[in-house]
Amino acid sequence: MLHLVLFSVFGAICVAGAVNLLVQRHPINSALSLIAVMASLAVEYLLLGAEFVAAVQVIIYAGAIMVLFVFVIMLLNAGEEERVGGSRVAIVFGIPGMLVGSVLTAWVLLRYSGTSGVELGAMPGPPKTIGWLLFHDFLLPFEVTSILILIAIMGAVVLASREEIPAPGERGEV
Amino acid sequence: MSVTTFVIVSVIKTVIALFVLLTAVAYSVWLERKVVGHMQNRWGPSYVGPFGLLQPLADGAKFLLKEDLTPPHVYKPLYIAAPMLSVIFALTSIAVIPIGNWVDIFGLHIPLQITDLNIGLLIILGVTSMGVYGVALAGWSSNSKYSLLGGLRASAQMVSYEISLGLSLIGVLITAGSFSLRTIVESQQGRFWGIIPRWNIFHGQEVAFFIYLMSAYAETNRIPFDLPEAETELVAGYHTEYSAMKFAMFFMAEYANMITVGCLATLLFLGGWNGPLFGPPLLQAILPVFWFVAKVFAFLFLYIWVRGTLPRFRYDQLMAFGWKFLFPLAIANLVITALVVALRS
């Protein structure tokens, strides 16, 4: 019973934060709503018994990535966005269409995926289980992902330092 | 233990922990002023009460009674929320910190800790990583150039040093094999050759302790890493525009963070409440808590000592030190610890 209440409350916060993220006109308010979404998602993970995932969600997403978002917004001193009127077609058909689509998806998933409600503790929760899964069962995907991230970091470094290294042909022009 | 007893015991523990923490915060301010005063050949606070011991109370009354100015150009919702966020996140971490063994009282067997989680350390890391928002949002919402620079510096610095801080802890986690702070302390019981205590700092984690110490100074924005509030260049950095109780909340958050970091250092590297036990049963029950408090106090004293000794870093030095020295060192320490543990088992 308590779980259902907590799930509903934090689910509602999550959805409200996501809507607020889109509605707010100032980037910093949107970023803060996103943090609220991340934090309430962490609570939902906790309710499933996935305490390690919940903690990592807070540390990585809410604590590190969103700090960088806020940092960039502060650094650029981004002001309020201008409201673009938007097309009436999008409001009349888009929002009901999205609602119907998501309800339909949820219904199909519940009806035909063959899974019932998830019990508390059904997810791999303790750090030991997660570690075993990552470094034993899913070792190859894990390592491939780390290489992918390494490539992304190298790409970012190359893009960021492009102007300081003149290409061989351009040297004489300056 | 029934639900009612559990709730009552938890509430009592929470109230006591908060009371002790807030008092400790107030008196670490007093300690800092006194110690730094003596280092600079001054007396420090000495008028209010014996040895100036009532100075924190006087300061508290002053903060409460002062006029709470709100500059006209601030972004109000965040300007008000920022100090609250700071202090909330600073006080939350105490919930998972154990200060001693189990006690038997009124027929109940209770741990000296608000709650023992098997991911206790991760909770502390998560809460401290959220703590940066207080500082960053204060800097941004004040809408003043000094505050903004302070907030920017704080978020860049805390994100950078959080990495080496986290990596320095993994060595300890590998040796203890658990995230639970209680288990980590229990793994440090005993002595080598009957003399040297089996604390992690004497157990192959010396380098990790050094990295932790440096990163902890940077995470709490203390000298020599206090660039977010560098008085000589930024007036007061992120809290330039704050006055009265809102300023006091930032102040409390800073000292509460110092105490948390001290507790964590004690638990992870200095053996927690482990120490020599002697005397009658009552004394034996109190001694572990005494050892814990003494170690935290030593850590706080070191903090103040460093503050009275070292000048501030330049900003590029700060970033270079974090990324080019501490970070590789932390990775090397992690790899070596993991190798040794793997070869031993």
Descriptive account of the structure:
The complex is a heterodimer of chains A (174) and B (345). Chain A is mostly helical and 174 residues long. Chain A is built from six helices and no strands. Chain A has two domains: 1-78 and 120-125, Four Helix Bundle (Hemerythrin (Met), subunit A), CATH 1.20.120.1200; 126-164. Helix content of chain A is 73%, strand content 0%. The longest helix of chain A is centred in the middle third of the chain and has 26 residues, at 51-76. Chain A has helices at 2-23, 27-47, 51-76, 88-112, 127-137, 139-160. Chain A starts with a helix and ends in a 14-residue tail after the last helix. In chain A, helix 1 runs antiparallel to helix 2 and helix 2 (27-47) runs antiparallel to helix 3. The model of chain A has no long low-confidence stretch (mean pLDDT 81). Chain B is mostly helical and 345 residues long. Chain B has one domain. Chain B is built from eleven helices and four strands, in the order H-H-H-E-E-H-H-H-E-E-H-H-H-H-H. Chain B has helices at 3-39, 55-65, 76-92, 120-141, 145-176, 181-186, 206-219, 231-234, 244-268, 281-309, 315-344, and strands spanning 102-105, 108-111, 191-192, 196-197. A two-stranded antiparallel sheet of chain B has the order 1-2. In chain B, helix 1 packs across helix 2 (55-65) and helix 5 (145-176) runs antiparallel to helix 7. The longest helix of chain B has 37 residues, at 3-39. Chain B starts with a helix and ends with a helix. In chain B, 46% of the residues are buried. Chains A and B meet through helix 2 and helix 3 of A and helix 4 and helix 5 of B.
Amino-to-carboxy terminus distance of chain B: 39 Å
Biggest sheet details of chain A: none
> What is the CATH superfamily classification of the largest domain in chain A?
NADH-ubiquinone/plastoquinone oxidoreductase chain 6, subunit NuoJ
* Secondary structure tally, helices of chain B: 11
The CATH class of the largest domain in chain A is Mainly Alpha
How would you describe the shape of chain B?
globular
The portion of residues forming beta strands of chain A comes to under 5%
Helix/strand-derived category of chain A reads mainly alpha
Q: What is the number of beta strands of chain A?
A: 0
Overall 3D shape of chain A: globular
The percentage helix of chain B is 55-70%
Straight-line N-to-C gap of chain A: 72 Å
Total domains of chain A, how many? Answer: 2
